[in-house]
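hi! just following up on the protien thing from before. the input was this:
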Amino acid sequence: MHQTAALIVAAGRGTRAGGELPKQWQMLAGQPVVAHALAAFAAFRRVLVIHPDDRARANAIAGDAVIVEGGATRDASVLAGLRALQGMGVARVLIHDGARPLVSQAVIARVLAALDHHLAAAPAVAVSDALWTGENGLVTGTRDRTGLYRAQTPQGFRYDAILAAHLAHKGGAADDVEVARAAGLDVAIVEGDEDNIKLTWPADFVRAARLLKGRD
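and the predicted 3d structure came back as:
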């Protein structure tokens, strides 16, 4: 596992979840959300990418993880983390949202297994609900859900390939799969997990606490 690193991205200022702190630093089952995400990757070399204002909070939970200050955008933060891994002999990197505290070892294992045969791999869940368009509170149409997926993390890459992709990218990507595809990399889809939720709204914290309690 020493050739695989985990990069936990926690530099955002997400406020839709409510509360006085960014969502990744709010408490969940007695620990900050990002502490749960960090713990999931305890078997790997870890880099925690943070906002400069959160240095004290990060120091309290980082353990042996390297702490790196991120940039103004998500892709800038990821690049800062990737640069921190240069020269460490890393062959593969798993890039994970700090606001996803419930990622399972099974999902992580599936991403790593796919990297044995692909330069990039990411978990996703196929869209099963009907899809509508809407305007002014009314349904305006439907969309075919065939071939549509909900993206999750960790998104895994051969390290050299994703570093080169980020260095070449102009910025503004939604996630690292978008960066990889812009560089011409094929990205394998692996089975995600409905419990691997990204905490965004207050109700997500209630659900996450319930799921964590169910794991005890």
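The mean pLDDT is 95.
The chain has one domain: 4-215.
cheers
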